Amino acid sequence: MTRSTTMRSIMRRLRLRGGGDRTRARLIAAGALSLALVAGGTTTASAAGDVSPERVVRQSTTYKVVNISRSYHVRGTQEIGRCGVGSNGTTCSITKTRGATRSIQSSFGLTRGAVAAGLSITSAASVQVSVGCSRKINRNQVLVAYPIGTKYRYRIRKTVSTFTGIRTSKHTSYSRYLTAFSPGGASIYCVVKSR
């Protein structure tokens, strides 16, 4: 039976029976059901809640030290030894120095040790310097020692991976450029300065 035949049959029954609004409503409802069956056999109800959004199954976050550059560096802001003399032309020697500080910057809440591992250095806060230096200086001068080491420049990459039942997505972000200084234990830089 086609849609047009069904509709003609319903209209004919309405004209023949007359009747009230209740009778007409029952006939129209029966006709709508017949049309649905003719069109596809069955009907399916859908609601806004039937389609669920993607559900997050698991998230994981990883960090990596990237864009690393290294350079020879004298830490001129960190004095680790000093000596002076009482008369001109006297040799001044620095034989004992303070520990040189190792500095490591971080971001994203990453630990100092994790950043140090990414740079392949130890995370210890200081290094004992085992060498000294000597110069002939005048009484109005001083001999000052500074640590020598490697300066690092780098960024930290943060990757958040989200796993759902449908797909996997990744979001990557980077820190600003950070610096670290790792002093050497067997070298210092000595310079003569005026008092």
Automatic annotation (TrEMBL):
UniProt keyword annotations, A-Z: Signal
Keyword Signal: yes
Residues of the signal peptide: 1-47
UniProt keyword Signal present: yes
Protein name, as recorded: Uncharacterized protein
UniProt lineage: Bacteria, Bacillati, Actinomycetota, Actinomycetes, Micrococcales
